[in-house]
Amino acid sequence: MRICKSSPRELEIEWSLLILGSVIYAVSTLWIQNVNVIPGSMLGIAVAVQKITGFPSGTLNLLLNIPIMLIITRKMGTKVLVYTVFILVCSGTLINAWSASFPMLPIHNVYALAVIGGVTMGIGAGLLLIAKGTMAGTTALTLLITRVVRRPSYGTILFLMDSCIVVIGSVMVGDWHAILYSVMYAFFCAKTIDVVVGLREKVHLKPVKASE
C-alpha cells in the first residue's frame, strides 16, 4: 500500500473540492430531514434509525462506515482512506450541528424535496469522488466495483445498491409510501453523480485507482 503522490496544484484542488463537497453533502440531508425520504448508503440506515430513536444520524453514519473504511484501506490505499475519514467527520459534524437549527423550508411537496435533495446530494457526492474521496458506504463499494467492470455506469450501480437500502429503510420507519419518493431521491442522486464525475477532466484530476 502506498500514498498516491499529487502535485501541489492537485492537492489544492482536491482539498477545495473535499470541503465544498462535504458542505453540499451535509446540506442535502437537511432537505429531507422532516419528510420520510430515506437516502441511500449507510446514511439511509442512519436516517431511518434517527427517525425511530432520535440518535444523531451523522454519528451513526460514521460508526456504520468503519468496516467499509477498513476495506477502503486495503483495496484503495491510504490517501482515499484519509479523504474518506475527513468527509465522514466533516459532513457528520455539519449534519449534527445544522439539523436542529435548519429553518423550515417553504417547499412541502415531498416529491419536489426528493428531487432537490437527490440532485444536491449528487452534486456533493460527485465533487467528493472527483477529489478522490468517497462517502464510504455504497459509494465506496460502487467505486471498487467500477474498478473491475466498466458497465453499467457508476451511477447505475449506485442506484441499484441504494434502492435496496431505501427499501430496508422504508420498512424500518414503517412507511411504504416512502419507497417511491426515496427511490426517486436515489435515482436523481445517482444520475447527477454521473454528470458531475464526467466533468473531472475540466479540473485536470485523474481518477483514483485501486491501491494508490
Descriptive overview:
This protein has 212 residues and is mainly α. The chain is 70% helix and 0% strand. It has 9 helices and no strands. The protein has helices at residues 8-30, 41-53, 57-64, 66-76, 78-99, 110-130, 137-146, 154-173, 178-197. Helix 4 (66-76) runs parallel beside helix 7 (137-146), helix 6 (110-130) packs parallel to helix 9 (178-197) and helix 7 (137-146) runs antiparallel to helix 8 (154-173). The longest helix has 23 residues, at 8-30. The N and C termini lie close together (7 Å).
Gist?
With 212 residues, the protein is an all-alpha fold.
How are the secondary structure elements laid out?
Blueprint: H1 8-30, H2 41-53, H3 57-64, H4 66-76, H5 78-99, H6 110-130, H7 137-146, H8 154-173, H9 178-197
Helix pairs in contact: 1-5, 1-6, 2-3, 2-8, 3-5, 4-5, 4-7, 6-9, 7-8, 8-9
Shape: globular
Structural class: mainly alpha
In this structure, how is the largest beta sheet organized? Answer: none
Distance between the termini: 7 Å
Strand content: under 5%
Total E-strand runs:
0
Q: pLDDT average, as an integer? A: 80
Tally of helical runs:
9
Query: What's the order of the H and E elements?
Result: HHHHHHHHH
Percent range of helical residues? 55-70%
Q: Uncertain spans, ≥5 residues at pLDDT below 50?
A: none
Rg estimate, integer Å: 16 Å
